Amino acid sequence: DIQMTQSPPSLSASVGDRVTITCRASQVISNLLAWFQQKPGKAPKPLIYAASSLQTGVPSRFSGSRSGTDFTLTISSLQPEDFATYYCQQYYSYPRTFGQGTKVEVK
Amino acid sequence: QVQLQESGPGLVKPSQTLSLTCSVSGGSISSDTNYWSWIRQPAGKGLEWIGRIYTSGNTKYNPSLMSRVTILVDTSKNQFSLEVSSVTAADTAVYYCMSEDLQRGMSWGQGTLVTVSS
After folding, report:
1. In this structure, how many other beta carbons lie within 10 angstroms of the beta carbon of residue A11?
2. pLDDT 10s digits, B21-55
3. Is A2 at the interface with chain B, CB within 8 A?
4. What pLDDT digit, counting tens, does each position of B49-104 carry?
């Protein structure tokens, strides 16, 4: 199985901050990586697919990038509604695997 | 983006079979660009991929669950389903269905809580 190592497990930030979350794949996955946002009691919301393509309706403050097997989700200016847990997922091979999640909390 | 909706019993007895259905709207389950997946999340924990099916009926399962899982597609109803046999308390989770489209990204259902208890 491909291991997805997400960091940090949690972070504290303020509204307006630039936030960066990283996901490292244990082997090459091309650009087949997605990012999701999950709030308590809710389903994960897709943000990014193919490493850097924004899902329809997602604000442009969210962006994704890839460098080899390292992937980054960036929130350029954190908004109050962005406090949540974020997950990455590879869909290059089976079984699909997720990162452990990064909880973005209020500083 | 397609919309997905899970349905099924919220309570299953130990050793019995968990059965869920995912109804797809806003698109066809016969699409050749979509894979249809099931994912689960125990309370307070991360996401676990269970398996997926393609319109042809081709399936891929997580090896950790493969011996107990069956995913089927019903193109006439635009639905796909999940069965997990011989359930235990460890199968208690929120179950989600998801669409994976290489061209348009992902869509998720709202999820349904399944509790395994006598």
Report:
1. 16
2. 999 999 999 999 999 999 999 999 999 999 999 99
3. no
4. 999 999 999 999 999 999 999 999 999 999 999 999 999 999 999 999 999 998 89
A95 vs B37: CB contact, 8 Å cut-off? no
Q: Which residues of A touch B96 (CB under 8 A)?
A: 43-44
Among the listed residues A76, A38, A36, the one whose alpha carbon sits nearest the alpha carbon of residue A55 = A36
Query: Cα(B73)–Cα(B34) distance, rounded to whole angstroms?
Result: 12
Own/partner pairs for A65-71, CB < 8 Å, 24+ apart? A66/A31, A66/A33, A68/A28, A69/A24, A69/A25, A69/A26, A69/A27, A69/A28, A69/A29, A70/A22, A70/A23, A70/A24, A70/A25, A71/A22, A71/A23, A71/A24, A71/A25, A71/A33
